[in-house]
Amino acid sequence: MAATPNEWFHPRGDLARDGWESVVDTTIPGWRHTGIRIADLASGALTLPAGGIERIVVPLTGGCIVDHEGVSTTLAGRRSVFDGPTDVLYIGAGTGLTVRGTGRVAVAEAP
Asked: Residue 2 pLDDT > 60, yes or no?
């Protein structure tokens, strides 16, 4: 019996865009209210423009520095996602950011 395709499953790399390993946002048909981006920062800094999107930066492994509105905020992070809670940074709508460091990071988004 053939497997039924799942419109919400995407193999690793299928959602890569603009330096991000995965980008889930409104460009995916049927996806409207939230989004997430995942990146390995060892590949370099990533910038997200200002716009009508709120964001939360979450270190997955390692830490990072987030540059926003002329301020640099250091997130200490953690060794792995299994090491308990981590610090996070909320970035309000209308604010761009650049995230840099050596670990993996997630940026949760909501219009």
From this structure: no
